[in-house]
Structure formats: structure tokens, C-alpha cells
Amino acid sequence: MNMRLFRGLLIAVLVGTVSTTPVASPAPVPPRVEETMRPADRMVNLGFEDVVRSDPRYLDELAARLEAVDATAVSISVGRTDWTAFPWSGQVRTDSSQVTDTGQDFVAGAISKLGVAANGKRRDIVLTIDVLLERALQEDPSLAGISATGAKSSSFASVSALRRGEAGNKLAALAAEVAKRYRPTAVDLTELMFDGFAFGTDDLVDFKATTGEPDWPRLDNGSIDQSDPHLRTWKCEAVADIVRKVSAAVEPFGVRVEMDVRSPRKTAAGDRAESGHDYELLLKQLDRLHVWQYVGLNGRRAPGTQELVRALNERAKDRLSLSLGLWSEDGTISAETFAANLEEAELGGATSVSVTPASLMNDAHWEVLKHAWAE
Q: Whole-model pTM?
């Protein structure tokens, strides 16, 4: 069904304006609507909370949902380097509590349930690694990123630890492990970004080595100028180096490398260099970027979905995929908002769209996705 027509019907149902009373006069001719094509790549993303569910019926239900919406791919979270969804042999204190308690390989279970459609066609399997840390930072605080005021992060590793240190080595090792063990279509990195926690002593050494600058850029009052372009360049090069290391680790297994990136704040043709996300630079190191379009969290000046998709297509077509997030300030975007943005993605000519996360989707969201992708 054309998304613009479906959206109109959805709104009418929600506000109670659709009447079931027979009408004698002929129905008016509906206005001409713009024909659209559904994305060729249609992926649903499973968060860690989806993957490690103790009730086996949950994955069966998800399998039926994926079938109903005609998903061509599924993204499965494998966890973090210090909290995995499978038993990582040869490593110390990396398994999540769910794995420790059960000994279960939740990743293998999810692939088994969701990897093949009812017609026997294999879905693309994207295994996603969350780059954030918790237990590792508690056990080794030297890995933690440090803010401009000296505060340590409880979840972000430092630039130097990921670019040249143990955190980065372990990230590459986990990517190689899941690539070898499961042979997915791709390994994806999420939450690889540097914002406020990038100003420790080791990071300053790295900044100097990259830029040739003698110190952090400073404002007149002596505080670090976090808008300085040297910082953007340094962060972008650091992220690219980390991705390059991961790509080299999985290359022997013939597995693609992908990454989640933030969407532009204001200009659809931009990127998020202040977080280390230079799209063009990253596309030289990997196969695809998933651009977060979290409409329920975006600022007012953020580009709309149709505008963003058109800009992404002009830059790199299907190598820049739209990731439509369901989060909002109130919890979850409505089914109406979801439908509107799926329609905008189609009108913009999106060839690759993912929806995230499955755990936030209710019956209404699934029904909207079914009409967008399968009817």
C-alpha cells in the first residue's frame, strides 16, 4: 500500500473520522499520490535486551513479525567487549550475567530463529558491537575517558585507549571472534563516538601527535575550546583509525564492516565531525554507515527524513543507510509519527532502512511497518 494513502487512513482511524455507514453517492476520486518504492534493504534491529530474553517464545514471535513485515535483514546485538551475549572462550570476565547464569549462546540462538525466512531465503545478519564499557572501566579506571573538567566517564573509553590501547585491541578481537564464529553478513559498531570525555593526559599526547599542536586549543579564560576545528579533525582521524583496525581484524573472514553514526544537526548534507563522524573519511575504511534519524530526540533544526535521505543518496546511495529510531523524550514515538517518517524515507528514495529497536515496537508499530514494507 502506498504509504501516503496508508498514513491518511491511519490518522482517520485514530481520530475516529472513518465511518462504516453505507453512502448512496459514489465516493470521490482520491487525489493523485506520488508513487514510491519500498527500500530494497529492510532491517529490524535487536538490542541486547531483545537478544538475551529468557523466554524462548519471544524469538518465535519476532520471527513471525519479521516474516509479516518482509524484513530482508536483522541486526543482532552481541554486547560489549566486557559484557557479551555469548560465551567468549579464552577471555576473563567478558561474559554477561545472562551468559554466566545459563551458559547459553544467545547470539547463535537468535541467528537460528531469525536468519532464514519462511520461503527458505537467508536474511542478511548484521552483528552489532556496542563500543561503550562499564565493567572494564570499573576494573581499570585508566581506560575511562575524561572530561574537560577532569570528570571520568562511567561508559566511554578514552580516545587513546580505543585508538592505541587495550580497549581498541579488545574491540578488534571481539569483531574477529564474531566474524569467525558466526560468519555474518557484516559486523557493525555502535556508540563509537567522542564528545565530552576526550581530554585526559593520554588523549592530549594523542592530540599533539595527530595535529602537531602544542596544547589543547584554549579560550581566553584558559578553558578548552571544544569547538576548535583541530579537535574535530583529531576525533575523526581517531575514529577512522579504530575502524581501520576492526576492518583488518575481520577481513580474513570475508565479512563486511559497518558503523552507526549520528545524523547532521542542521544541514542534511553535513555530518557529525564534532563526534568523530566524518562520513567520507569513514566510508574509506568500511562498507556502510547507518545514519541515526532519531526523530523523537532530534533538535528542531534537524533535517527532516525525506531531506536527509535525498542528501544521503546524493553522497553514497545505499552505502549510507537510514536508521529510524523509535526513542522519544516521552519514551517511544507514536505509530503515526513512525508511519510519517517511513513515508518520508520512501519519498526520499531510501534504498536501505533499518528500524531500531525491536523492544520498543508495539502492535501498532508493527502494523505500520507491515503496510510500509510488505503490502
A: 0.90
